[in-house]
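Give me structure tokens for this 204-residue protein.
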Amino acid sequence: MPLIDAALILAAYLLGSLSGSLLLGRLRGVDIRTQGSGNAGGTNALRTQGWRFALGTVLVDVGKGLLAAWLALRFGSLAWLPYAAVAAAVLGHVWPVFHGFRGGKGAATLVGGLLLVWPLGLAVVIGSWLLVLVLSGYVGLSTILAVATLLPLAFFTEAGLERWAFAAAMALFILYTHRGNLQRMRAGVENRFERVRLLRRRTA
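Here you go.
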């Protein structure tokens, strides 16, 4: 691997390590890892700090995935490098070197990367996420199933090997980072966004 490509992957990981909620939390004097679910992602930011804080968190986390992908596309020399850079940024978000290796779950950073490396994939992911969310009210379940749709999309669009590998790796990784959500669903204690549940509104 050329040195520049290795440097781009490292840069992507370091970008991913810049956690939106933790950086903004320092300005507010809070660490959301000590509140709510203990996760440093956008959902916990919304529940514990409000929508403005959550919006800032999501913008930072999406932006770093976008920037990692752009740098790899602009300066990289290998076809698979943009996908590897997005994956590295997601890893950095989950295990951030700047924040004691305790970060979020990676979904927002993945969304930012998909915007450049696989726009159709992003559209399918967002559509699937919204559909499952309004049917179930579970954010974690929606995220797991939405990212999993990248696999059938890769099949039906006859994607290349690098896109297949990326889809499989991200689907498994997002499943892993949301394993706690599945455990809480099984125990019947997972939080729901009741206000967005379409079926509940119709039957109320």
